[in-house]
Amino acid sequence: MQNENIAGRDGSERRRDTLERLMAERDIWVSTGHPEHGPHQVPLWFVWHGEALWMCTSATSATARNVRAEPRVRLALPDTSDVVLVQGEARCVPADEVPGDAAAAFAAKFGWDPREEEGPYAYVCVVPRTVRAWRGEPELRGRVIMREGDWLRPPAA
């Protein structure tokens, strides 16, 4: 696949575009792994709030079980032409213990508040450690825009 008409963005443009997508997108692919059962991948609704991604799932789901056993996760926005990959450590927060501002942001975005449901729900919080973003081959170089939890500064011109 050729991407001849794609102009490469610098690091600050990639960061801005990535943050805009994290605020606007609805779904994210969540990849977890269990030491005995192997990999698991599922799309979840998410909200970007307070420099973290907040998702919600059943407290008994494979995702929640996996995060409790192995907190390292990978997340991916669904557009393969405008790639955003996030790596970090997840933690499960019971719905009745989630910070109120994060739960309110999730509920406002989706019109659904898991704290009001009868079944046990858990929020999965991921603070990014590494973020990669690129649009096609011309942007493969420099695709790491966050490393060790710090946004990288573009090289001086």
TrEMBL record:
InterPro entries: F420H2_bilvrd_red/Heme_oxyg, Pyridox_Oxase_N, Split_barrel_FMN-bd. Residues 28-134 form the Pyridoxamine 5'-phosphate oxidase N-terminal domain. It comes from the Bacteria. Keywords: Oxidoreductase. One of its GO terms (cellular component) is cytosol. One of its GO terms (molecular function) is coenzyme F420 binding. Pfam families: PNPOx_N. PANTHER family: HEME OXYGENASE HI_0854-RELATED, PYRIDOXAMINE 5'-PHOSPHATE OXIDASE-RELATED FMN-BINDING. This is Pyridoxamine 5'-phosphate oxidase N-terminal domain-containing protein. It comes from Streptomyces formicae.
